[in-house]
């Protein structure tokens, strides 16, 4: 478990006009410039504070770019083996049912080595939340092809583009999990502009509300950019996401927290 706190010094003569949520530490993010992990972190932290969940939330860190979330969230947290976050979250939630438990996983972690864990957690209807960051590439380990890499997308291990005959098709996680009766709430959002970010925050709140009410499994997928391994400036990466990822991974509610028949596009 980890709870790290440091203070921020404001230079003399300057006034703070915005502050960080208390559920985030003051450590600077170590993500690449333009990476939207930081945006997603802040949204989760804001919701935790607004809902008053700070003192009973447990964050599960994976292997991947988000492996250090225990440094950034001022919450009880644990770092687990690659792909095993839903399994560990299941154990924590069952042992401490009053806790609010969430996993924070990338596409390689959740849709690759951890696909069995998330499928079975959803099928069992485990009362926890999975936050899934999809940037269509393995970011931490040098930009290899991921389970979510788009057809024709170039990566360090698919330099000529993803070949569907050789490499198979990308996995659409929300569409897959929405077929499972145990899943309560499944939605795909993006963090590409202020409107989308506001909607993403509402999705995070819904996932936590579902868990707090004891109604079962939630997953929120965030379409995210990876300027470093996409080889693009951040603004260009956002445009690439809009032009290429949104058609393949449409935004929307795939399983509504309101019950069957309530699914609707974002």
What does this structure look like?
This protein has one domain (37-255): 3-Layer(aba) Sandwich (Rossmann fold), CATH 3.40.50. It has ten helices and seven strands. It has helices at residues 37-50, 69-72, 85-95, 107-113, 115-124, 164-167, 173-177, 194-212, 227-230, 234-248, and strands at 57-61, 76-79, 100-106, 129-134, 183-190, 217-223, 252-255. Strands 2-1-3-4-6-5-7 form a seven-stranded mixed sheet, sandwiched between helices. Helix 1 (37-50) crosses helix 8 and helix 4 packs across helix 5 (115-124). Mean pLDDT is 90; it is low at 1-6.
C-alpha Rg, in Å? 18 Å
Largest sheet: 7 strands, mixed
Give the proportion of residues in helices: 25-40%
Give the structural class: alpha/beta
Beta-strand content bin: 15-25%
Low-confidence stretches: 1-6
Shape: globular
User: What's the domain count?
Assistant: 1
CATH C-level category: Alpha Beta
Number of DSSP helices?
Answer: 10
What is the end-to-end distance?
Answer: 36 Å
Q: Can you tell me the CATH superfamily?
A: Thiamin diphosphate (ThDP)-binding fold, Pyr/PP domains
Q: Can you tell me the CATH topology? A: Rossmann fold
Name the helix and strand elements from N-terminus to C-terminus, one letter apiece.
Answer: HEHEHEHHEHHEHEHHE
Average of pLDDT: 90
- Structure summary, number of beta strands: 7
CATH architectural group: 3-Layer(aba) Sandwich
State the main characteristics.
10 helices, 7-stranded mixed β-sheet, Rossmann fold, 266 residues, alpha/beta, disordered N terminus
Summarize the structure.
This protein is of the alpha/beta class. The chain has helices at residues 37-50, 69-72, 85-95, 107-113, 115-124, 164-167, 173-177, 194-212, 227-230, 234-248, and strands spanning 57-61, 76-79, 100-106, 129-134, 183-190, 217-223, 252-255.
């Amino acid at each position: 478990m980890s709870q790290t706190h440091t203070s921020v010094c404001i230079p003399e003569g300057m006034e703070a006009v915005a502050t960080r949520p208390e559920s985030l530490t003051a450590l600077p993010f170590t993500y690449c410039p333009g990476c939207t992990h930081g945006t997603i972190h802040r949204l989760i932290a804001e919701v935790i504070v607004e809902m008053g969940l700070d003192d009973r939330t447990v964050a599960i860190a994976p292997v991947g770019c988000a492996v250090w979330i225990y440094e950034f969230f001022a919450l009880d947290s644990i770092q687990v083996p690659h792909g095993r976050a839903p399994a560990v979250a299941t154990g924590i939630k069952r042992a401490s049912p009053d806790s609010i438990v969430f996993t924070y996983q990338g596409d390689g972690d959740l849709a690759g080595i951890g696909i069995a864990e998330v499928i079975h957690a959803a099928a069992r209807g485990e009362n926890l939340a999975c936050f899934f960051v999809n940037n269509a590439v393995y970011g931490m380990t040098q930009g290899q092809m991921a389970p979510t890499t788009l057809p024709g997308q170039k990566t360090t291990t698919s330099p000529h583009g993803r070949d569907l005959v050789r490499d198979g098709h990308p996995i659409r996680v929300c569409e897959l999990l929405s077929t499972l009766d145990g899943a309560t709430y499944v939605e795909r959002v993006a963090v590409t502009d202020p409107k989308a970010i506001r909607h993403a925050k509402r999705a995070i709140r819904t996932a936590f509300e579902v868990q707090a009410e004891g109604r079962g499994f939630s997953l929120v997928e965030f379409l995210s950019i990876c300027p470093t391994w996409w080889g693009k400036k951040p603004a260009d990466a956002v445009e690439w996401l809009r032009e290429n990822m949104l058609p393949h991974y449409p935004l929307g509610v795939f399983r509504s927290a309101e019950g069957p028949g309530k699914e609707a596009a974002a």
